Write a sequence for this structure.
């Protein structure tokens, strides 16, 4: 543009205009880059917060599951004891009478 057949003042104005536009474009790109970094850092903080919440929920869930398993084992033990007692009572009632008659006879 400097060696153009235009008026030198007009060429200087066009060069300044072009430089101004380039500077504006550079600052806009730089601001977009900075904004991108800011948004990314906010997302990372939010994700870490969500990760901590997820770990806490996992711990709570595992504690609840452990408690439920303990209760289940206790219930199974109680049920087994009750069935054993029922079976013993049935055996005493059923075979205890025959044993008495055998000894008596």
């Amino acid at each position: 543009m400097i060696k153009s057949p235009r008026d030198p003042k007009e060429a200087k104005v066009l060069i300044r205009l072009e430089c101004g536009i380039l500077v504006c474009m550079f600052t806009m790109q730089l601001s977009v880059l900075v904004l991108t970094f800011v948004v990314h850092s906010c997302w990372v903080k939010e994700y870490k917060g969500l990760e901590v919440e997820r770990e806490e929920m996992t711990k709570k869930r595992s504690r609840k599951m452990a408690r439920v398993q303990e209760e289940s084992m206790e219930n199974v033990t109680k049920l087994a004891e009750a069935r054993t007692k029922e079976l013993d009572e049935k055996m005493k009632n059923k075979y205890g009478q025959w044993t008495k008659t055998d000894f008596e006879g």
